[in-house]
Amino acid sequence: MDWKVLRPYNIEKLKGIPTPFYLYDMGLLSETVSEVVRLSSHYGIEVHYAVKANANPRILQHIASKGLGADCVSGNEVLCALGNGFLPSRTAFAGVGKTDKEIETALVNGIFALNCESIPEIAVVDEIAGKLGRKADVLVRINPDIDAHTHKYITTGLEENKFGVSKHDFEALAELLGRCTNVNFKGLHFHIGSQIMDVEEVFSLECRRAMEIVRYFEDKGLKITDIDLGGGLGVDYAEPDTAPVPDFEGWFRTIAKGMEIAGNPGRYRIHVEPGRSIVAQCGSLVTKVLYVKPGQNKTFLITDAGMNDLIRPALYGARHKIVNMTACSDHEDDTAVYDVVGPVCESSDVWAEGLGLPFSKRGDLLAILSAGAYGQVMSSRYNLRDLAPAVYMDWNGEEVELTTEA
Ligand SMILES: Cc1ncc(COP(=O)(O)O)c(C=O)c1O
Predict the structure, then answer these.
(1) Which residue among 194, 235, 272 has the greatest number of ligand 1 atoms within 8 angstroms of its CB, and so is best to mutate?
(2) Residue 373: which of 186, 139, 195, 173 has the closest Cα?
(3) Total domain count, the chain
(4) What DSSP designation does 378 have?
(5) How far is the CA of 277 from the centre of ligand 1 (A)?
(6) What is the pLDDT along the chain (406 residues), one digit of tens a residue?
(7) 323 shares a domain with 265
(8) Is residue 254 located within the same domain as residue 305?
(9) Nearest CA among 154, 165, 138, 219 for reference residue 192
(10) How far is the CA of 193 from the centre of ligand 1 (A)?
(11) Are 286 and 20 in contact (CB under 8 A)?
């Protein structure tokens, strides 16, 4: 595959656009989605794109147009997914704190499933479905107590996490499901964490644990047709160009094999919910160097994009690869070491420390790579800063289109 995360022949055209902005390479998105479609069909796995990773309408429309389903975590995400072309029959809705209004939204739109996260929630869904005269299709999210080997803020399948129903509640859950008259229980949902790099080890374990739990509930007389194994496939933030399209082959193969070894007789529909792996690499945050500020022991590059535009570094200590798009061509041989920081009045507004870059100056354009997931969608107006708009590189990488969408 020949895609590069940032293709140099676009840079001249980007220079005239006011910064900061999110730059989306729709060609790379298309390539990524095509791989997902091809491989998921090969391995017989149904894919629901996790809208939370990036809810930009143009991105949603592209993904929906290729036939993927949606995984949502709020009523507004459900409406946004449906409004941008996802089919209700392929849309799932998870989340530990669904409001009554959100549950109603899901039910009246006839989505594929509400992924319920607790016993009290299932009781409420049963009641609301009864009032609406509908049957609620439900998967129950299970907390499988698995360590996903990832950052503590993005691990979700450990006993101490707030997500899903834990083992000590299984008996009560089976009893409740047997009693609900307006709930159509379809199966189980798992999501153990995000940015998982130990794909084989972690997802094989998830499959084994999932099948053990499936058997437990089947032994209690409950019928299971669907198993949703969540998202979590990680991407390479350090060297995005080595795998602009993440290893979906390895992930799907691990799941297909893991389910087979764990004794899946092939009668279940298997679902996954990738977010980050589909959209991370197609997005960059493009920012201008406002000032080169010499400090006592270091030199700061101060950018016009800040933590309000991309919060991952401040929130998780995440580090994104940064390239100086302007200096690449001007001063290839001269390098210097910088702390690259944003303008927001918080000490955590830091992109990189001790980073070697080509000699940089005021006005240079920097690209903060791999910013397509959990970037624009998590941006805020903190410090009353403007929201960064989106710019789309078209399919052949020649043209850019500036929109004012934020
Ligand atoms: C329930 C659920 N499904 C899917 C995802 C998507 O995860 P990722 O972006 O790591 O693929 C998340 C992310 O937190 C989630 O909470």
Answers:
(1) 194
(2) 195
(3) 2
(4) G
(5) 10
(6) 344 566 555 677 788 889 999 999 998 999 999 999 999 999 999 999 999 999 999 999 999 999 999 999 999 999 999 999 999 999 999 999 999 999 999 999 999 999 999 999 999 999 999 999 999 999 999 998 886 666 665 555 556 677 899 999 999 999 999 999 999 999 999 999 999 999 999 999 999 999 999 999 999 999 999 999 999 999 999 999 998 999 999 999 999 998 887 676 678 999 999 999 999 999 999 999 999 999 889 999 999 999 999 999 999 899 999 999 888 655 556 899 999 999 999 999 999 999 999 999 999 999 999 999 999 999 999 999 999 999 988 655 555 565 545 4
(7) no
(8) no
(9) 154
(10) 7
(11) yes
Instruction: Tell me, in angstroms, the distance from the centre of ligand 1 to residue 304's CA.
Output: 30
Out of 59, 273, 278, mutate this one to test ligand 1's pocket (max ligand atoms within 8 Å of CB): namely: 273
The answer to whether the CB of 181 falls within 8 A of the CB of 152 is no
Does the residue 355 lie in any domain?
yes
Rounded to the nearest angstrom, the distance between the alpha carbon of 275 and the centre of ligand 1 is 6
Q: Which residue has the tokens 């995360």?
A: 5
* Domain range enclosing 375: 281-402
DSSP-derived secondary structure for 145-185: ----SS-GGGB--STTSSSSB-GGGHHHHHHHHHH-SSEEE
Pull the structure tokens for residue 24. 């989306």
- List ligand 1's pocket residues with C-beta within 6 A: 50, 52-53, 71, 94, 191, 194, 230-233, 273-277
